[in-house]
Amino acid sequence: MTANLSAQTLEAYKHWAPLYPPIAHNPLMRAEQQAMLEHWPPVSGIRAIDLACGTGRYARLLADAGAAQVIATDFCVPMLEQVAVGTRICASMMQLPLRSESFDLVISGLALGHAPSVNAWMAEISRVLKPGGTLVYSDFHPQAARTGLTRSFSDAHDQTWTVPHHSHDLASQKEAAAAAGLKIEVIREIRVGIELRERFPNSEDFYRRWDGVAIVLVVRARR
Predict the structure, then answer these.
(1) Which domain holds residue 150?
(2) 31 and 196 Cβ atoms separated by less than 8 Å
(3) Is residue 1 part of a domain?
(4) What are the backbone angles phi and psi of residue 8, rounded to the nearest 5°?
(5) What's the rounded Cα separation, in Å, for the pair 194 and 212?
(6) In the chain, N or C: fewer CB atoms in 10 Å?
(7) Rounded to 5 degrees, what angle do the CA atoms 39, 17, 220 make?
(8) How many whole angstroms separate alpha carbon 97 and alpha carbon 139?
(9) Residue 48 confidence (pLDDT)
(10) CATH number for position 29
(11) Distance (Å, rounded) from C-alpha 44 to C-alpha 33?
């Protein structure tokens, strides 16, 4: 089930799962989620996938918005066990056990960077989308990776983990989308000190050091 995805990534998420609530639980996630929701298509009555769902924050939002069917997929069982809505499927996002052309919408929050191949990731999403279906995804911005920002957390034993991340530049994402038959409609950047402004403990140093850096990318594409 973890084909083509990092064992290190899986191990990190197993340790993160007990501390990972199914909501946008920090300033970055709240800014990311706001941008994602601004670019969602109408959800009521559709079939949707929360791809690499984690603990299911987008699955919950899809269900609350009236989606007729929500599939929540993730390769980390401890994360998936916390998903409270929809049909849970443990699977790699690179190889989904789902029928082709079956879904109206794929949502994927902050997960593309776990894919070793952006081309394979886009192709698999395109496969499961119906003609006219929509993909809305976010990821850590390639600029953030270049400046040295990482995705790290402390587990229940106060051990620090850094989640492995493949930085797929925007040109590669555009090329992969086109090759998969997906037309990009929206590209949105979340920048430190601009879209991301919420204060948190000791945030002054963060905002001063990284001011203006694009930290999250949000993209909408249509098949």
Answers:
(1) 7-222
(2) yes
(3) no
(4) -65, -40
(5) 7
(6) N
(7) 15
(8) 23
(9) 98
(10) 3.40.50.150
(11) 19
**pLDDT tens digits, one per residue of 122-166:** 999 999 999 999 999 999 999 988 888 877 777 777 888 777 788
- Find residue 161's DSSP bridge partners: 153
Domain assignment present for residue 214? The answer is: yes
Name the β-bridge partners of 134. Answer: 105, 222
Asked if residues 29 and 50 have their Cβ atoms less than 8 Å apart, the reply is no
Kindly calculate the radius of gyration of the chain based on its CA atoms and give it in whole angstroms: 17
Which residues, 6+ apart, have CB-to-CB distance to 137 below 8 Å?
51, 106, 107, 108, 109, 111, 112, 218, 219
Q: Which amino acid type is present at position 116?
A: P
DSSP string, 46-87: -EEEEET-TTTHHHHHHHHTT-SEEEEEES-HHHHTT--SSE
Q: How many domains does the chain have?
A: 1
* Cα 120 to Cα 110: distance, rounded to the nearest angstrom: 17
Q: Is residue 90 part of a domain?
A: yes
Q: Answer whether 155's CB lies under 8 Å from 13's CB.
A: no
Q: What residue ranges in 144-213 does DSSP mark as E strands?
A: 152-154, 160-162, 183-191
114 DSSP 8-state letter: G
Residue 2: inside a domain: no
Contacts of 52 (CB under 8 A, 6+ apart): 73, 74, 75, 93, 108, 109, 111, 114
